[in-house]
Amino acid sequence: TPPLAGRVRALAPSATLALTALARELKERGEPVVSFGAGEPDVNTPEPVIEAACRALREGKTKYTPSGGIRPLREAVAEYLHTRFGLAYAPEDVHISVGAKHALFNAFLAVLEPEEEVVLFSPYWVSYPEMVRLAGGKPVVVPTSPERGFLPEREAFTAALTPRTRAVLLNTPNNPTGAVYPETVLRQLGEVLAGRDVWVIADEIYAELVYEGAHVPFPRAVPELADRTLLIGGFSKSFAMTGWRLGFAAGPRELVRALDNLASQSVSCPTSFVQYAGVAALREALGEVERLRQLFASRRAKMLAALAEVPGVRFAPPGGAFYVFLDVSPLLEAGGFSDADALARALLEEEKVVVVPGTSFGAPEFVRLSYAMGEEEMLEGIARLAAFARRRV
Ligand code: PLP
């Protein structure tokens, strides 16, 4: 057969999606698996959103839409960003995408020339480095440490910048660490970037899921750089809409138009009736977002209490998202595991518990546990993890 292109031969599939698929397969075979792998809320989408999608279908909203999204949804996003976070975007400054992931992918395509660099802070969400490489760019990874709450540090960031740096990716609240970047940290990063031709891509998809501290959007903390900041958000996490594939980007008009054009030549537009559902989400279901946040807050508290009883692991309470990023280095050493992959394999074999190894987040001594799951199952899973750990520590 003819060869495939180098760009896909080097491409790793999303480790988290692969793991979720494995957990589902084992469950379907009747194995008593407990999976902490989920990157999505376990509840269904709010009823008004479902209703709006059905209505749109019946009303014949089944045709192509403008590639950057329908006007009512651009308006609703602009209004939401204003009332919720005090941000001033016109509907023309908003692009509607097929999930936040699609907006991120196209953002890298829109700003990177070959070999230009994107600064990412590790631990990072698995898809960023692959997206940067697919766009022809080079990821430059700047580590953050658990001792400093996984927050970006000014000196390390400054040292990573080169004449080839074209963009920096900020993710707050953070997946996988749950870190919520305080305004002071964002301001420091902004100071370093002042006067440089560097785009800021701010992935704030977990903006609504904060339990300690407050989410401050980057363009709110650093309005001076708003003209070079692309804010990315979505419906997946806060409205339990992962399967609908709907997200948005807001920022300087020229870049937003570039995203529209990229979409027009690739996907044409986000699914028409899903966009109408998006309008209903923002106009009618914001109360559901708060209910979801409270649900996660209560699970988070129980998860942290249960984890405190597990030997050989360390963690700090994460401020946002729905993950605990667990330092398993004492357990790796005690159990003779080479890295978190080996530990995750043994945990699955012995206890039928699925965790996501930190390896693909650039943190091989950590595992990520999602608490977007039923409480009983969650506590059962932690009990099994504790039993696993006690056999070694
Ligand atoms: N950004 C981060 C940090 C995520 O964790 C995810 C989903 O896991 C996404 C973006 C993608 O979200 P969407 O479903 O809107 O594409």
Automatic annotation (TrEMBL):
A Pfam match = Aminotran_1_2
Does this UniProt record's set of keywords contain Transferase? yes
Q: Where is the Aminotransferase class I/classII large domain?
A: 32-383
What EC identifiers does the entry list?
2.6.1.-
Alphabetical keyword list: Aminotransferase, Pyridoxal phosphate, Transferase
**Superkingdom:** Bacteria
- Which cofactors must be present for this protein to function? pyridoxal 5'-phosphate
* Molecular functions per Gene Ontology: pyridoxal phosphate binding; transaminase activity
Biological process (GO), any one:
amino acid metabolic process
Please state which protein family the record places this protein in.
Belongs to the class-I pyridoxal-phosphate-dependent aminotransferase family.
State the protein's name: Aminotransferase
Q: From which organism does this entry originate?
A: Brockia lithotrophica
